[in-house]
Amino acid sequence: MLFLRACDKSDIPKAAQMLCRVYAEAPYKENWPLDRAEKRITSYMSGSHSRGYALIVETQIVGYLFGRIITAAKSNHFYVDEIFVHPNYQRKGCGSMALNALPGELKKENIEKIELHTLSEDASFYEKNGFTKSPYVNMEKTI
């Protein structure tokens, strides 16, 4: 059974180390310097609307989920900036359990919708967990 625990600043080093490990694996195969990973995690936790959760199985942290509350015209939304699970725990249902536990945490703050963007190859994972494709398109521009 997996549960979520709210993160605090003491989680930053371990979350950064895990981010480096996860992103070193396929499909990303990125070499993240630890200091940049720590900056990324710190930025996820820096605002008053930021939320971070450790994904815990028994007493072991197996992953992290970071996001932020967004005020919309008629309700509050939660945007998932990052979710990652340690490679030893991937494909064991931890990500799904985290996404299923998340609404219980967010409803306490009157959040009505969860949004995220993902790699197209991972879309089926999120669809399996109740997400639907939105009419929006993710775009970027290299500068």
Notes on the protein architecture:
By secondary structure, the chain is α+β, with helices and mostly antiparallel strands. The chain has a single domain, classed as Aminopeptidase (3-Layer(aba) Sandwich), CATH 3.40.630.30. Helices cover 31% and strands 29% of the residues. It has helices at 12-24, 34-44, 94-107, 123-128; strands at residues 2-6, 50-57, 60-71, 76-85, 111-116. It has a 5-stranded mixed sheet with strand order 1-2-3-4-5. Helix 1 packs across helix 2. The longest helix has 14 residues, at 94-107. The radius of gyration is 15 Å and the shape is globular. The N and C termini lie far apart (44 Å). The model has no long low-confidence stretch (mean pLDDT 95).
Write the SSE topology.
Elements: E1 2-6, H1 12-24, H2 34-44, E2 50-57, E3 60-71, E4 76-85, H3 94-107, E5 111-116, H4 123-128
In a nutshell, what does this entry contain?
The chain is 31% helix and 29% strand.
Gross geometry: globular
Neighbour order of strands in the largest sheet: 1-2-3-4-5
Q: What is the CA-CA span between the terminal residues?
A: 44 Å
CATH architecture designation: 3-Layer(aba) Sandwich
Rg of Cα set: 15 Å
| Secondary-structure content class | alpha+beta
Descriptive key words:
five-stranded mixed sheet, 4 helices
